[in-house]
Amino acid sequence: MPSRVEAERSVGGFDTWLFRVVAVLTSGILLGVAQPPIPLEWIGVFALIPWILAVWRAPGVGEVVAQSVLLVAAYGAVVIYWLPAALLGVGARPSPGVLTVLGASLWAPLPIFLPAGILLYFARERDDVVSLLAIAFATAALEWVHGHGVLGIPWAHLGHTQIDSEGVSQLARLGGVPLVSMFVMSINVAVARSVLRMDQSRVRIALASLSAWAALHFAGLSIAQWGGPIDPAPPSVQLLVVQPNIPRAERWIPSLQSFNVERAAWVMKAALRNRQETVNAVLWPENLVTSREIERPLSVKRFSSRSTPWACR
User: Fold this and answer.
1) Cα 150 to Cα 135: distance, rounded to the nearest angstrom
2) Are 202 and 194 within 8 A, CB to CB?
3) Are 284 and 310 in contact (CB under 8 A)?
4) Alpha-carbon dihedral sign for residues 245, 250, 251, 254
5) Phi/psi of residue 2, each to 5°?
6) Exposure string (b/e) for 78-92, b if CB count within 10 Å is 16 or more?
């Protein structure tokens, strides 16, 4: 007599190696697309469903580990698509560039999704709400731990997919990004359960979770404003953001360092000349100066003689 999990895995003929690979790749791509700056926050509540189904249909823990590696590799490749061009711009060969992208992709989300995948695998026979919330809480806790410490990377977390949802992102006022991640993960698991077996209990939980997301998405901001005062804003400052539209790859070419600094300085000075208000601070682009040979460019020295501070973010 087959177990319930074995029966569910065989439903529809989906218990194939090719299906699981395609499902995991699909989740990685969808999760990457759901991340900013593209405002597709609704994809985040469905992105992990193919991966979760693949985990539940895996024949063993070994394949779950392989699926997690494949998931984060596809996820990272979508999120940091610009890194190969930057590496080639500094003279890196294609093969080391690909390995660097793979390494960065694995280091960022793998410590989160590998334990989460193993937990999902061992909890695959559970139907209760407690196990659903436990999986979601564990994922959020893993994100929190991974985002702290010397080697912490609080970047591209599951909750970040909801940045463009003003309502859902209000959860961050209560528990930070991990609480948003917990909410999104619980929806993915609930819907995946209903897809695997559409009984009344599973469908009811899935619909309730989706309804909660829709309610927060459309009314969360109003509820937050009604429920309590928003923290008073600190005194405002005038910040000038300088973005000279320099391609990322060109920022890493040593011979272009001085030219890039002059381009940014020209844009900055033109903006300052055309403003009536006092500028309190200036923010330059990330990684604008990447060569050690240019520690204090002449343009920066000339600008630093003024009263306005500047910084490279």
Assistant:
1) 26
2) yes
3) yes
4) negative
5) -70, 150
6) bbbeebbebbebeeb
- Contact between residue 172 and residue 127 where contact means Cβ atoms under 8 Å apart: no
Q: Which residue has the tokens 């990322």?
A: 248
Cβ-contact 187, 60 below 8 angstroms: no
Of the CA atoms within 13 Å of residue 292, those in its CB half-sphere come to 0
Using the structure block, give the residue that is written with the tokens 């003003």.
166
Q: Which of 202, 188, 22, 203 is nearest to 125 (CA)?
A: 202
pTM for the structure as a whole:
0.74
Q: What is the pLDDT of residues 25-80, one digit of tens each?
A: 999 999 999 998 888 999 999 999 999 999 999 999 999 999 999 999 899 888 88
- Extract the tokens encoding 75: 């996820």
pLDDT digits (tens, 9 = 90+) for 244-290: 888 766 777 778 888 888 888 888 888 888 777 788 888 887 777 77
Residue 245 neighbours by CB under 8 Å, 6+ apart: none
Tokens of 275: 């403003």
Contacts of 149 (CB under 8 A, 6+ apart): none
Residue 268 and residue 239 in contact, taking contact as beta carbons nearer than 8 Å? no
Q: What are φ and ψ of residue 284, in 5° steps?
A: -95, 165
CA nearest 81: which of 248, 244, 243?
248
CA pair distance 182, 189, nearest whole angstrom: 11
Cβ proximity of 115 and 129 under 8 Å: no
Using the 8-state DSSP alphabet, how is residue 288 labeled?
S
